[in-house]
Design brief:
Blueprint (H helix, E strand, L loop, with lengths): L7 E4 L5 H12 L4 E5 L2 H11 L3 E5 L5 H18 L3 E6 L14 H26 L9 E5 L12 H21 L5 E7 L6 H9 L8 H16 L5 H12 L6 E4 L1 H12 L2 H13 L5
Parallel strand pairs: 1-2, 1-4, 2-3, 4-5, 5-6, 6-7
Helix pairs in contact: 1-8, 3-4, 4-5
The structure holds NADP nicotinamide-adenine-dinucleotide phosphate (NAP).
């Protein structure tokens, strides 16, 4: 049974990676945390690992009835155990890649359903709970974007499109929710060691019979290099926690050196230079 006077934090996608690291961090800092899962067996494992201050709730973010049920369950848990909701960490995400010439529309839609529409729908339904209590208390919506919310690379169009959309929606939401003293924060990590990489490469393999095969191999090779040099998800969890705690958080935080470099590069480099660099990457085709 959660026992804390600190505000509750809801985190989506706690089965692995960044969501799990965020859950661990907030629990370590003494917050009661509700994490969402698609696999409730995994939820029970994480509950056992993290102890009384962590509770798992089922959420399939692409399904409205599941969102409604999860929000109902979250409301019930917070009412039963007492306290107020202090933050929503919208972390759930998938990374779908592939050439836009061939990507099936249902896959492109699914990318946006998870990373954009589901996220906004879940947030909308939790906002009344976040807005409860004294106006001056801390209320945060923390959206897990990516450096792909700033730059769009070949064969990562679906993912980059969803994160660019999330950036635009979050900017609008930040201004709109300022009248309720809710701060909306974007976290923009570079490469982080999580299972998302392997899932993404697996999706791209279906295009290896097209004219893009050698280029996809080059991109997958590059993903392998980035993955090897990626840092642990704890660094992102730290940024999420620190941004939650700050009295006046910024609108967005880049995480990792690679992301900081990309952020600077995008700000100053003209499109021609960005394209030239991307095309150079595509030329480096490792022989099968
Ligand atoms: N890893 C990176 O390099 C990196 C960099 C920048 C940003 N990000 C962002 O960080 C976030 C977390 O990703 P991660 O890298 O930690 O990957 P991950 O370990 O694969 O975690 C993704 C989480 O999202 C959940 N999820 C996926 N589809 C869902 C759905 N339809 N409904 C509900 N939950 C769903 C997954 O649950 P299941 O286990 O059930 O699939 C999992 O818990 C994502 O938004 C990602 O875009 C990652």
């Amino acid at each position: 049974m959660p026992s804390s006077t600190k505000p509750w934090i809801v985190i989506t996608g706690c089965s692995s990676g960044i969501g799990l690291a965020c859950a661990k961090r907030f629990v370590t800092e003494g917050h009661p945390v509700i994490g969402t899962f698609r696999d409730m067996q995994r939820a029970r494992e994480i509950e056992n690992e993290l102890g009384d201050n962590f509770l798992g709730v089922h959420l399939e973010i692409t399904k409205e009835p599941s969102i409604a049920q999860a929000v109902k369950e979250i409301e019930r848990l917070i009412k039963d155990y007492g306290g107020l909701l202090g933050g929503i960490v919208n972390n759930s995400g998938v990374a779908i890649g592939g050439p836009l010439k061939y990507i099936p529309m249902d896959e492109l839609r699914y990318q946006f359903e998870v990373n954009v529409f589901g996220l906004i729908s879940f947030t909308q339904k939790l906002l009344p709970l976040l807005e409860r209590g004294p106006a001056e208390r801390k209320r945060r919506v923390i959206n897990m974007s990516s450096v792909s919310g700033k730059i769009s690379n070949p064969f990562l169009g679906p993912y980059a499109g969803s994160k660019h959309a999330l950036e635009a929606l979050s900017d609008a939401l930040r201004l709109e929710l300022s009248i309720h003293n809710v701060k909306v924060i974007l976290i923009e990590p570079g490469p982080i060691q999580t299972p998302i990489w392997d899932k993404s490469i697996a999706v791209q393999e279906q295009y290896l019979h097209t004219e893009y095969a050698p280029y996809l191999r080059a991109v997958n090779h590059l993903i392998g290099v980035l993955k090897k040099n990626a840092i642990g998800p704890e660094k992102v969890a730290n940024k999420v926690y620190v941004s939650w705690k700050k009295k006046s958080p910024k609108g967005r935080y880049l995480v990792t050196r690679q992301a900081l470099f990309t952020g600077l590069f995008i700000r100053f480099a003209p499109d021609g230079v960005k394209d030239w660099l991307n095309k150079r990457t595509l030329r480096k085709v490792p022989q099968p």
